[in-house]
Design brief:
Elements: E1 4-11, E2 16-19, E3 22-25, H1 29-35, E4 47-57, H2 64-77, E5 83-87, H3 93-103, E6 104-105, E7 111-114, H4 127-140, E8 146-150, E9 153-156, E10 161-162, E11 171-172, E12 180-182, E13 186-188, E14 203-204, E15 212-216, H5 223-229, E16 236-241, H6 252-264, E17 267-272, H7 285-292, E18 296-297, H8 303-315, H9 320-327
Parallel strand pairs: 1-4, 1-5, 5-7, 7-8, 15-16, 16-17, 17-18
Antiparallel strand pairs: 2-3, 6-14, 8-9, 9-12, 10-11, 12-13
Helix pairs in contact: 2-3, 3-8, 5-6
The structure holds aspartic acid (ASP).
Length: 347
Amino acid sequence: MRKRVCILYTGGTIGMKPTAQGYAPQSGYLRQVMDAIPEFRAPEVPEYSIHEFDPLLDSSNMGPRHWQSIAQTIADLEQDFDGFIVIHGTDTMAYTASALPFMLDGLAKPVILTGSQIPLSQVRSDGRDNLITSLMVIAQAPVPEVCLCFGNRLLRGCRTTKVDAAGFQAFDSPNYPDLGHIGVHITIHEHLIRSPKAFSTLLVHPLSEAKVGALRLFPGISAELVANVLRSPLQGLVLETYGMGNGPSTDDALMDVLTKAHERGVIMVNCTQCLRGTVDQSTYQAGSALAECGVISGQDMTIEAALAKLIYLFSLNLSLQEIQKAIVTNLRGELTPADEESTLVYV
Ligand code: ASP
């Protein structure tokens, strides 16, 4: 039976048209371009319907309320389709791909985010391959996860980050192996795919207006600047630290600012500025000092995943202790529990 796919079109370069101010999305244009490409009607390609969002956005203008409407649309249409493709701008695609897995509780069908670096209407567009491959992945394999398909890689959504502003391999999954490789064959690494919860129904966790932020440490950062960022009403902060999770531990004023924020109930999550690797606050004195101030290890989560997780957890109305516990717990495959690290094989 030919599979049925719902394409949720949110915007992004793939459907953009050149204008006097640069590329901008235009309603109906993507459908028009797709209709003119015969490969989209090939018998091996699943049938699809396009659900266009209004307004179409450059993903730089997207935020949690847009994640919310994507998640809700998937839940509303879940029974009618075998899988979903979310066409999205590449700039914040990794953030949406990190948030959706938390919001879509009990997901048992594939949700694949994709887009392109060059509009589909242009001769050298990468959008045609990215879109057809995403459709073919759904035709071929049941991957009941939120994934990101771009270039020759199928990645777990909540492990992704954008690493190239113009290259066709724009995304990486630095701390988790690829779920699939796209070459002559589409190879899915089934042992890496999470199994859906048994007998579950899809439930959307709505997001509240959580006040969270991210702050990148840099040599010479002042206690005053950090204090300003941590001011009320901030509830959670991803602290982007050096190496294995280190910070300026000899700056007493800065350590005091962090301790006071912790005492006020601000959740601070330590994520490394390095692309690859995990935070271990016990390796250096410059890391354990942060732990003493109440900063929690974000382990090997990306900044995108840590931010999305904080927003999600604050939206659940949990106690601070429950949030602290959930931060270090693997909820959707967003972090690698210490006992599984050595079993990951990168391909
Ligand atoms: N600015 C665009 C966006 O994120 C970039 C892209 O789609 O590649 O919507």
